[in-house]
Write a structure and sequence with these properties.
The protein is of the alpha/beta class and 333 residues long. It has 11 helices and 15 strands. Helix 6 links the parallel strand 9 and strand 10.
């Protein structure tokens, strides 16, 4: 079979397409024919600098995939041949709080990734693909969508709440769609008027152009009559967190997700505003299954900006690096 492998710190150009042995499923494992794999910013960072993450090489990249089961090993009870499935981000995090052991099963990082024609996966590390979704759409779910769902549910977001989203990448766009399904209002930022127009068509309540309004937290406060939003899905990291704290109400919550921008943080406003700041690192299999139920009830179709053929996978990473996408980038197999 064909698979991409990270072999060095030489970046995207050095990502190698290799012929390797097709795996066979062991006990409790199934063999998946991968049909689509989406890219997350974390996958790009892994390809560009695996040594910084102390990853063994060669390593197959990418956490996300969707496909169908073509063979089952001994003792498998959860799935059968022909079932359409998505692999979970953490193979062993099934429910409850994450453990240190679960952290070692992150696909495309400490564990082998999914950018290959076939992958043998433990049955516990799979969820059923929503029946109405294509494999391309379903491949966007394991990391970005579960991350958004974890942030929103941990923040207690419910109908009538106001949620702040930063930018129009994969996490923010699916979070917008989930907020709409939950009945929450969304304020979303971007530097592009064209993208802000697109999020309005997806149901955003208010938009803020952070290029035109560098102190965008003040505009968010104006929009919310000085109160601030109930919850912020913070994908920017230290470079934007201080403004997100200012834009979030007293007693509100922030899901800290991204590492896109560097900066220094003064934690005092969190204390003074009695805010809850949660570190969000994707989520469990149970969160994935709960989210899929919500998506299916509302038949939410994830937004895919562009697809790339398997042989052109390096172009998908370059597109991620350019950061011009709206929603998700997906490689098809």
């Amino acid at each position: 079979m064909k698979a991409y492998q990270i072999n060095s710190d030489d970046g995207i150009d050095a990502l190698a397409l290799r012929d390797i042995d097709t795996p066979r499923p062991g006990p409790y494992e199934v063999l998946i024919r991968v049909r689509a794999s989406s890219i997350n910013y974390r996958d790009l960072l892994t390809v560009e600098n695996p040594s910084a993450r102390n990853l063994p090489i060669p390593r197959i990249p990418n956490s996300d995939s969707a496909g169908e089961i073509v063979e089952v090993g001994a003792n498998v009870t959860r799935f059968k041949v022909g079932d359409r499935v998505c692999a979970t981000f953490f193979e062993s995090w099934l429910d409850g709080e994450i453990t240190a052991s679960d952290m070692t099963t992150a696909r495309g990082g400490t564990a082998e990734g999914m950018l290959a024609e076939y992958r043998a996966v433990h049955e516990n590390g799979l969820v059923a693909t929503p029946a109405y979704m294509s494999d391309i759409e379903a491949a966007t779910l394991p990391c970005a969508a579960v991350t958004a769902w974890n942030s929103l549910t941990r923040g207690g977001v419910r109908a009538g709440n106001t949620v702040l989203l930063l930018g129009t990448g994969g996490v923010s766009i699916i979070a917008l769609q989930l907020c709409k399904a939950l009945g929450a209002r969304v304020v979303i930022t971007s530097s592009s008027e064209e993208k802000l127009a697109r999020v309005c068509r997806l149901g955003a309540w208010q938009t803020v152009n952070y290029r035109k309004n560098p102190e965008w937290q003040d505009e968010v406060l104006d929009i919310t009559d000085g109160h601030g939003v109930d919850h912020t899905v913070e994908v920017g990291g230290p470079g934007t967190l201080q403004k997100s704290i200012a834009a979030t109400r007293v007693g509100g919550s922030i899901g800290l997700i991204g590492v896109l921008a560097l900066g220094q943080i003064d934690p005092l406003p969190i204390l003074m505003k009695s805010q809850r700041l949660h570190g969000i690192y994707v989520g469990s299999r149970q969160m994935f299954e709960d989210m899929n139920q919500a998506l299916s009830v509302h038949e939410v179709n994830p937004v895919v900006d562009a697809t790339f053929a398997f042989d052109d996978a390096r172009e998908a990473y370059r597109s991620m690096r350019a950061a011009d996408h709206f929603g998700k980038l997906v490689i098809t197999l």
